[in-house]
From TrEMBL:
InterPro entries: LolA/LolB/LppX, OM_lipoprot_carrier_LolA-like. The keyword Aminoacyl-tRNA synthetase does not apply. Signal peptide: none annotated. It comes from Pseudomonas allii. Monomer. One of its GO terms (biological process) is protein transport. The lineage of its organism: Bacteria, Pseudomonadati, Pseudomonadota, Gammaproteobacteria, Pseudomonadales. It comes from the Bacteria. This is Outer membrane lipoprotein carrier protein LolA. Gene3D superfamilies: Lipoprotein localisation LolA/LolB/LppX (2.50.20.10).
Length: 217
């Protein structure tokens, strides 16, 4: 055995004596505090997603139906404003504008914005999108069990329905993102699914005059 081996052994013995001399709870608390200091939690995610005042971006939505061999694809743009809500502007395969806010879901027609019945098709899904994009984890926790993995620039949030009503519609919802939400996947109990990709999102642009007008109506 050479000098280096002896030095290594002495160092290991010293380290083991130091650890052995600490009460187990102290060690455990130290490890937990160290982990907590680096863990990315739901509150941090909520704060991160709620930070931008306005987000503009493009979206591609794929609706996968069991009865169809190819998904139904729609594309458009969106505007998310913290103090106003969400403008969801469908461009293809048809043009249709939606607004989601605290007042409900509205659709634009020749006469302007018209509020839709709360039980209209897709209403709950659209409210869910708004809660996710705004980082409203407290709102989501009322209806879902939330499981978060990853870190601030690369995370995955899984939503498992709590209520019987939601369990009849969704098996789970997967949300992926970084600084902003990038992808939302809704898995339905009947085997259908929806995949929504948020592309080219930016928080660098304020609301335009036209967008402010749309939210104000």
């Amino acid at each position: 055995m050479d000098f280096n081996d002896n030095a290594i052994r002495r160092t290991l013995r010293s380290a083991l004596r130091l650890i052995a001399g600490k009460p187990a709870p102290t060690l455990l608390i130290g490890l937990l505090l160290s982990f907590s200091a680096h863990a990315f939690d739901l509150q941090q995610l909520s704060d991160q997603l709620a930070k931008p005042s306005v987000i503009h971006g493009n979206f591609t939505q794929e609706k996968h139906l069991r009865a169809l061999p190819q998904p139904l694809v729609s594309k458009g743009t969106f505007v998310l404003a913290k103090d106003h809500g969400l403008l969801w502007l469908l461009k293809t395969p048809l043009q249709q504008d939606y607004r989601i806010s605290a007042q409900g879901i509205a659709r634009r027609d020749a006469n302007g914005w018209q509020l839709l019945p709360n039980k209209s098709a897709g209403a709950e899904q659209n409210r869910l999108f708004l809660a996710v994009l705004q980082g409203d984890s407290s709102g989501l926790q009322r209806d879902f069990e939330l499981q978060l993995k990853g870190e601030a620039n690369d995370w995955k949030l899984t939503l498992i329905p709590r209520s019987l009503l939601l369990k009849q519609v969704f098996t789970q919802i997967n949300i992926d993102g970084g600084e902003l939400v990038q992808k939302i996947e809704l898995l339905e109990t009947q085997g259908d699914s929806t995949l929504l990709r948020m592309q080219d999102s930016t928080a660098a642009q304020p609301l335009s005059d036209a967008e402010q007008h749309d939210f104000a109506q």
